[in-house]
Amino acid sequence: MTKDNPPAMTPKTASRSVMTIGTLARRTGVPVKVLREYEDLGLIYTVGRSPGNYRLFGEEALWCVGVVGTLRGLGLTLSEIQELAATYLGDTQEPIGPRLARALHLVRVRTQARITELQSLVDRIAHYEADHRDELSARADFRTHDPRFGGHRP
Predict the structure, then answer these.
(1) What pLDDT is attached to residue 4?
(2) Are the CB atoms for 32 and 25 separated by under 8 Å?
(3) Would 86 disulfide with which of 1, 19, 38, 41, CB 3.0-4.6 Å?
(4) Number of structural domains in the chain
(5) Which residues pair with 48 in a beta bridge?
(6) Cβ distance 47 to 58 under 8 Å?
(7) Range of the domain at 110
């Protein structure tokens, strides 16, 4: 599987009910543009194209969109989901569970780092508010610090 040409997720059994990408978008609430990206990445089961070259999907695509949405909601990137899909759909005997657990661990580490960054930002805001309490409450004017105003209020 390459990033340029990922294999499409194709179910082993053909779906009886076929829908266009527009119908899939309406049923899932996911924009058509996003669904096209998911299909291009090989993340949605597809039944191919219509004679008019419309993308066609079976009911199984609803499950795929749900799984991708769940994993995105847990913080996985599309690249990480694509790697998991390649393992899941590949002819390997590797169970997907441990690989997903490792991916979730990486997301947890990234998220903890982001929380630390955000806490640092909250601390900087609190420090700024403490340093500028008078200006923020209109008991003083920020212009007193501005060299253009020479410490004088206009």
Answers:
(1) 46
(2) yes
(3) 1
(4) 2
(5) 56
(6) yes
(7) 95-149
